[in-house]
């Protein structure tokens, strides 16, 4: 949380005269309300409805817990970065907010990577049960949290309260600085590059590979699928898998867009040698947008689920919008759609078993 302000220039603009002083708190208040209600409702749904505890939803629960962590422990404090001139919460909260932010980012991007791998296995090789089993999924989710905590250790250790004198003024401001200055600028550059690669570039490249392979497999399998199976329900099974894959892809795109401006600014600021001299209103606005987007990511996944998934929309309507007429009117239609999907899945499974029996019979006859 570097405090890059106009104090690096000759003219210092007081916080009371800056528009972000009034805009950022409103944005963060919305992030807090939407994030707590949305992610809290997701956690409640998983606790109260056993039918929702499948493999993909276990990862979605992990995402919701990570987002709740950063919203509760970080958002209320970091929202004041652009509204008060000095960090008022002390060094402990400085370290806590930096650490929880990195833990949440790690949990998000590593869980999205695991979800992409799980969807790839479910679509390409659905018979492989051990990869899609609940115990394996729980172990993977726990391992992701442990890895995220380990990688966030520097953020829990090194941040401190730095001070900066205000030009043409006798006051000194304090701000939460994530990199120890005793280590030099090389450490800051190394950490910026490390976070860019580990939390952004490498996971997104892996996710991109999984989705490319998924798309290729779906095109080939649809082309080679016998006509009988296409009309008997096998195509419905593929549609159901595609729907979950599209849901995961929407989470990935949201994450990619949310953190791109943040990483662009950090790389520019730390690697461009004249960044402090040319830091102007454009870069200041760009930094604030990236700062806000990185936290908006923590509240937007439940919103995306509401519009993408009919099953989740039913539960959101039940717990959040139970008093609204449109929610009650649409609930019966959504439940009917869910029942139809369940019946279609049953037909697909029976068709799939019949297809395997026919194939096995043909293979046996050909061998004899």
Automatic annotation (TrEMBL):
Gene3D superfamilies found in the cross-reference section: Rhodopsin 7-helix transmembrane proteins
Membrane topology type: Multi-pass membrane protein
GO CC annotation: plasma membrane
Residue ranges occupied by any G-protein coupled receptors family 1 profile domain in the UniProt entry: 38-305
InterPro entries the UniProt entry points to: Bombsn_rcpt-like (IPR001556), GPCR_Rhodpsn (IPR000276), GPCR_Rhodpsn_7TM (IPR017452)
GO molecular function: neuropeptide receptor activity
Protein name in the entry: Bombesin receptor-like,G protein-coupled receptor, rhodopsin-like,GPCR, rhodopsin-like, 7TM
Organism this protein belongs to: Cinara cedri
């Amino acid at each position: 949380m570097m405090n890059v302000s106009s104090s690096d220039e000759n003219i210092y603009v007081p916080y009371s005269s800056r528009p972000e002083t009034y805009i950022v708190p409103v944005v963060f208040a919305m992030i807090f309300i939407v994030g707590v209600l949305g992610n809290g409702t997701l956690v409640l749904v998983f606790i109260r409805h056993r039918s929702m505890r499948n493999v993909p939803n276990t990862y979605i629960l992990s995402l919701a817990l990570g987002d709740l962590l950063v919203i509760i422990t970080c958002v209320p404090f970091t929202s004041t970065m652009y509204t008060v001139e000095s960090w008022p919460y002390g060094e402990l909260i400085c370290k806590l907010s930096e650490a929880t932010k990195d833990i949440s980012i790690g949990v998000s991007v590593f869980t999205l990577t695991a979800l992409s791998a799980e969807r790839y296995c479910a679509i390409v090789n659905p018979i492989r049960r051990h990869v899609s089993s609940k115990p394996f999924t729980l172990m993977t989710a726990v391992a992701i949290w442990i890895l995220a905590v380990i990688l966030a250790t520097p953020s829990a250790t090194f941040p401190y309260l730095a001070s900066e004198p205000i030009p043409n003024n006798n006051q000194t401001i304090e701000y939460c600085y994530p990199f120890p200055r005793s280590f030099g600028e090389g450490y800051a550059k190394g950490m910026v590059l490390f976070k860019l690669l580990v939390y952004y570039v490498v996971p997104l490249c892996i996710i991109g590979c999984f989705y490319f392979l998924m798309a290729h497999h779906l095109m080939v399998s649809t082309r080679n699928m016998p006509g009988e199976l296409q009309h008997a329900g096998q195509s419905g099974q593929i549609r159901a898998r595609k729907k979950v894959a599209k849901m995961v892809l929407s989470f990935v795109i949201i994450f990619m867009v949310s953190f791109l401006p943040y990483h662009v600014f950090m790389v520019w600021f730390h690697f461009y040698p004249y960044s402090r001299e040319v830091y102007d209103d454009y870069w200041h606005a760009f930094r604030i947008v990236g700062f806000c987007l990185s936290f908006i990511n923590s509240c937007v996944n439940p919103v995306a689920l509401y519009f993408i998934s009919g099953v989740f929309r039913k539960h959101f309507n039940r717990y959040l919008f139970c008093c609204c007429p449109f929610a009650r009117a649409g609930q019966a239609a959504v439940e009917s759609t869910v029942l139809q999907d369940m019946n279609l899945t049953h037909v697909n499974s029976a068709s799939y078993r019949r297809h395997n029996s026919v194939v096995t019979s043909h293979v046996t006859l050909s061998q004899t």
